[in-house]
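queue> pop job 88
queue> type: inverse folding (structure -> sequence)
queue> payload:
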């Protein structure tokens, strides 16, 4: 019922298309990563610390990460790889109740590449390394990577397998490296100058596509290692890429909410679709038949767009589709909540899939007291009582100073008037009246 209602609300100007547009709801935070198995099962990574597995729109939750999950990969019929802000690489057998922690890095895990034969996977990390893992894992205990690849000067954002033993990686250091997994050696094949966020490699090894923080989308001829096409538009940064080899489609998502669809046969932009009026497109994946593009961003829903109808959706809504509400319709206090709090906290009573505890009834409540929520050790037995004064102090100096060691991200609301408006909004929104 909620899914049908969401579709109707989004497509009211084009109701005839409603059956062709789908949302997947259930996560409690932004969608950071997407992957699709050969049989069509969608896997999602979210800021709510969970991995979602979706069949016919119904989620199964894989829980165990201690912070936001930002990367997910499908490994064979029953294997899922996930990683994120808790620095861990986890392997899930969907037939088993709990994950195996393959290893931990010294920085967040940002992406996965799965070998075409499914026998190996590579995880990328902001510690500047790539880790090569044998699949499936051979035992139940903590594992060790088959190899650790070092060479990038800064964090690694993306990786992709090429033919044979070739691996490509993109880094914040502005380079793309080509690795020989036989001996672990590498060399730089692209020097961009700005951080490279995403890359995709043609399975046949003819070309490589990459997207960067300065908005560049370029195609590299791998035979000559020279630029083949520049498909950059005036939007930045590039945050997501997906490739469907059989249909020759490349999808590119950016920080301004657009999805650009490219034909790899003639390097023509076939669609340039505004999927979100506000907020980025962080995650993209194709359905196995290439007829649907899945997208995720700041909203806690996954959107499935029929590729052949993208132009019709665009025309029907005049570019006004949005993952988020229009800020002009909100009071200043609600705007502060949406910007600073809504990703992690719900306002309603009862269980929530968001990364933080519900704020329902927060005034007069002792910090660390919501039943069932796993707080950080620093809030166990806390003497803080949430009221006007303590909430004001929390955002005046920032959670990292007010409650050192808590899981709350560092953020400050500098203007006293903005803090007062937030407090007034929370009083109204969290009382249940």
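queue> result:
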């Amino acid at each position: 019922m909620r899914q049908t209602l969401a579709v109707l609300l989004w497509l009211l100007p084009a109701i005839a298309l409603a059956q062709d547009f789908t949302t997947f709801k259930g996560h409690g935070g932004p969608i950071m990563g997407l992957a699709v198995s050969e049989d069509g099962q969608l896997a999602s990574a979210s800021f709510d610390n969970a991995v979602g597995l979706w069949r016919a729109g119904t989620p199964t939750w894989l829980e165990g990460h201690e912070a936001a999950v930002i990367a997910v990969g499908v490994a064979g019929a029953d294997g899922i790889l996930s990683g994120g802000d808790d620095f861990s690489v986890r392997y899930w057998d969907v037939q088993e109740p709990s994950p195996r922690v393959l290893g931990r890095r010294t920085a967040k895990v940002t992406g996965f590449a799965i070998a075409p034969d499914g026998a190996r996977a590579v995880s990328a990390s902001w510690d500047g390394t790539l880790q090569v893992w044998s699949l499936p894992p051979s035992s139940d205990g903590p594992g060790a990577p088959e190899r650790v690849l070092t060479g990038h000067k800064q964090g690694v954002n993306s990786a992709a397998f090429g033919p044979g033993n070739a691996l490509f990686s993109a880094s914040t250091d502005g380079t793309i490296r080509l690795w020989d997994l036989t001996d672990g050696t590498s060399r730089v094949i692209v020097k961009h100058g700005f951080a490279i966020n995403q890359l995709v490699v043609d399975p046949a090894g003819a070309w490589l596509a990459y997207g960067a923080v300065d908005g560049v989308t370029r195609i590299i001829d791998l035979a000559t290692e020279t630029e083949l096409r520049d498909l950059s538009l005036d939007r930045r940064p590039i945050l997501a890429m997906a490739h469907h080899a059989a249909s020759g489609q490349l999808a590119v998502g950016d920080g301004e909410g657009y999805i650009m669809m490219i034909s790899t046969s003639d390097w023509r932009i076939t669609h340039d679709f505004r999927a979100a009026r506000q907020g980025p497109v962080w995650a993209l994946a194709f359905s196995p038949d290439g007829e649907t593009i899945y997208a995720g961003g700041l909203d806690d829903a996954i959107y499935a767009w029929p590729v052949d109808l993208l132009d019709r959706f665009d025309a029907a809504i005049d570019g006004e589709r949005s993952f988020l509400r229009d800020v002009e319709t909100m009071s200043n206090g609600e705007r502060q909540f949406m910007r600073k709090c809504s990703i992690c906290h719900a306002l309603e009573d009862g269980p929530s899939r968001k990364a933080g505890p519900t704020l329902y009834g927060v005034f007069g409540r002792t910090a660390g007291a919501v039943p069932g929520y796993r707080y950080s050790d620093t809030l166990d037995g806390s003497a803080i009582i949430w009221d006007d004064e303590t909430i004001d102090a929390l955002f005046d100096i920032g959670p990292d100073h007010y409650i050192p060691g808590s899981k709350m991200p560092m953020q400050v609301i500098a203007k006293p008037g903005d803090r007062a408006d937030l407090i007034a909004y929370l009083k109204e929104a969290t009382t249940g009246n």
